[in-house]
Amino acid sequence: MNLLSDVLSLLTPRWWILLIASTGGITATCMRVFETEKSRTKRAKRKKETELRALTERISIYARDVHQRFPTGDVVVGERDLAEQLRKRPEAVVTALNLLLNEQKVQRASLR
Q1: Strand runs (DSSP E) across the chain, as ranges?
Q2: What is the CA radius of gyration of the chain?
Q3: Tens digits of per-residue pLDDT, 51-69?
Q4: CA atoms of 40 and 32, how far apart (whole Å)
Q5: Residue 110 contacts by C-beta under 8 Å, 6 or more apart in sequence?
Q6: C-beta neighbour count of 1 within 10 angstroms
Q7: What is the pTM of this model?
Q8: pLDDT tens column, 71-94
Q9: Phi/psi class of residue 75: alpha, beta or left (left: φ > 0; alpha: ψ in -120 to 50)?
Q10: What is the C-alpha separation between 109 and 112, in angstroms, rounded?
Q11: What is the rounded CA–CA span in Å between residue 49 and residue 46?
């Protein structure tokens, strides 16, 4: 009993934090290793949807900012220009714009 109390008294708060963090890391690693293919696929799909939603939000914020700078007209931005501005792949921007188009938050404009 004395040995156990001596060991516990040697563990300073810094060691307790390290011990708890290590335990959490090991638990997370084990969960990933023993994860089924179905749950792995589901997690990847959720992550992709979350990233897509975040990108649509960034596009909306960018359009709002540009519209505040030029309040007299519509905001017209090319897909590639928008992808460069947001530092995202053009395919991801096109997917996000299509999602916004389906939600009727953006319109497709002809360049004539």
Answers
A1: none
A2: 25
A3: 999 999 999 998 888 888 8
A4: 8
A5: none
A6: 5
A7: 0.65
A8: 887 777 888 989 999 999 999 999
A9: beta
A10: 9
A11: 5
